[in-house]
Amino acid sequence: MPQWPQEVKEACQVDPDDPINVSAANNPVHLWRYVLANQTREERRALYDRQLSAYTRLQEKIAMAHSSTDK
Predict the structure, then answer these.
(1) Are 43 and 28 in contact (CB under 8 A)?
(2) Residue 47 belongs to what domain range?
(3) How many angstroms separate the CA atoms of 59 and 52, rounded?
(4) Domain count of the chain?
């Protein structure tokens, strides 16, 4: 089974106060609604906002990591 190098594991540790929680606790309550793309506008917006926030934070971390190695 493939394994991430230790360097990658250390760089990807989740902060204890990280507001982005991607655990099963955040799974949609109405799974069929999610599967069938029938979420309410508010549910879809909340999910999108969480995903966008996580994506933005990852992009910032990657940019910081690359800017420190470019010097």
Answers:
(1) yes
(2) 39-70
(3) 10
(4) 1
Q: What is the pTM of this model?
A: 0.48
Does residue 23 belong to any structural domain of this protein? no
CB pairs under 8 A, 24+ apart, for 56-62? 57/20
Look at residue 64 and tell me if it is in a domain: yes
Q: Is the dihedral of CA 24, 28, 33, 38 positive or negative?
A: negative
Going by the DSSP 8-state scheme, the letter that residue 36 receives in this structure is T
Interval 33-38 mean pLDDT: 70
Sign of torsion over alpha carbons 24, 30, 33, 38: negative
Q: Residue 71 pLDDT more than 60?
A: no
Distances (CA, A) of 16 to 13, 42, 54: 9, 28, 15
